[in-house]
Amino acid sequence: MDTYLKAAIEEAQAGVKEGGIPIGSVIVYNGKIIGRGHNRRVQKGSVVLHAEMDALENAGRQPASVYKQCTLYTTLSPCAMCSGAIILYQIPRIVIGENKTFKGEEELLRAKGIKLEVLQDEACITLMKDFIKNDPKLWNEDIGV
């Protein structure tokens, strides 16, 4: 398994252990993880702390030139909010663990010239399927249903 996807899955697992939603993300620049995060909406009582947003927050203030050379790894296809941040910071490549349980704004990202690689990783799929089955109400809240 890819080292960076593994790190994103570890973030997702941390979210579950904290009572949150199992989605994780890491941002990689020049072969180094500069930001890690997981969905912490429940833990922080936040409306915006999806995994990708948390990873961006934890990467800290970076020049645009850094983000333009990064790859974002995420266990689940990015939603509209996270896709907007990816577009804003011009992150050129996203590796997505899976999009079977939720397909985010992939067409918009592609239309903006962002390269997507969807892995359909079984660990990512299982994490989300189990979570959705066990807590559909929280899942629906997270995706705005």
Give a structural overview.
By secondary structure, this protein is of the alpha/beta class. It is built from eight helices and five strands. Strands 2-1-3-4-5 form a five-stranded mixed sheet. α6 links the parallel β4 and β5. α7 packs across α8 (136-142). The longest helix has 15 residues, at 3-17. The mean pLDDT is 95.
Give the topology, please.
Layout: H1 3-17, E1 24-29, E2 32-38, H2 41-44, H3 51-59, H4 64-67, E3 70-74, H5 80-88, E4 93-96, H6 106-111, E5 115-118, H7 122-134, H8 136-142
Parallel strand pairs: 3-4, 4-5
Antiparallel strand pairs: 1-2, 1-3
Helix pairs in contact: 7-8
Could you give the distance between the termini?
A: 33 Å
Pattern of helices and strands: HEEHHHEHEHEHH
- What is the structural class? alpha/beta
The unreliable regions are none
Basic shape: globular
Helix content bin: 40-55%
SS summary, helix count: 8
In total, the number of strands is 5
Please compute the radius of gyration using only Cα atoms.
14 Å
Mean model confidence by pLDDT: 95
Strand content: 15-25%
Task: Give a short account of the largest sheet.
Answer: 5 strands, mixed
